[in-house]
Amino acid sequence: MEKIKKLAFGTDHTSVEIRNTVKKYLEKMGYEVEDFGFSGSESCDYPDYALKVAEAVVNKKADKGILICGTGIGMSIACNKVKGAIAAVCWNEDTAKLAAQHNRANILCLGSRTATISEVCHRIKIFLETPFEERHMRRIAKIKEIENNQH
Ligand code: RB5
């Protein structure tokens, strides 16, 4: 399994309250976390943070990305516009595991309005500790081909 050391982390205004707890949890597990924000009190636009995290991952400044918005949906839609990003919204432990194991997701997107802090932390742990299974590589290659054929 590839060694995951560095994480790119980002949140929007919906997740200011859980941001530090999640970040500390990741650091306590031994990960190096680059935090791309958001920490203000006004509202912000999640695509700005999705882009920063996705770029850090595809440019290999981070091994994996973790993003939290209200639902995880907007973050994942924005990330998946970046070539090389494979962002997955995961709504329970099983999907967090399968996103890593079957889909080779490199960015996990979660919702602060749809999960508790403890569920968020647990899903992240499972995602980061589950290796990709090479038998799924044929499908990942087909997704890459779709991406490469877009103009
Ligand atoms: C912000 O209100 C909300 O739309 C955002 O956090 C996210 O849930 C979008 O998908």
Can you put this structure into words, describing what you see?
The protein has 151 residues and is α/β, with parallel strands linked by helices. The chain has one domain: Sugar-phosphate isomerase, RpiB/LacA/LacB (Ribose 5-phosphate Isomerase B, Chain: A, 3-Layer(aba) Sandwich). The protein is built from 6 helices and 5 strands. A 5-stranded parallel sheet has the order 2-1-3-5-4, with helices on both faces. The structure holds D-ribose. The site of D-ribose has 8 residues, from helix 3.
Q: What are the salient characteristics of this protein?
A:
44% helix; five-stranded parallel sheet; binds D-ribose; globular
What's the helix and strand layout?
Elements: E1 6-11, H1 16-28, E2 32-35, H2 46-58, E3 64-69, H3 73-79, E4 87-89, H4 93-101, E5 107-111, H5 117-129, H6 137-148
Parallel strand pairs: 1-2, 1-3, 3-5, 4-5
Helix pairs in contact: 1-5, 2-3, 4-5
The structure holds D-ribose.
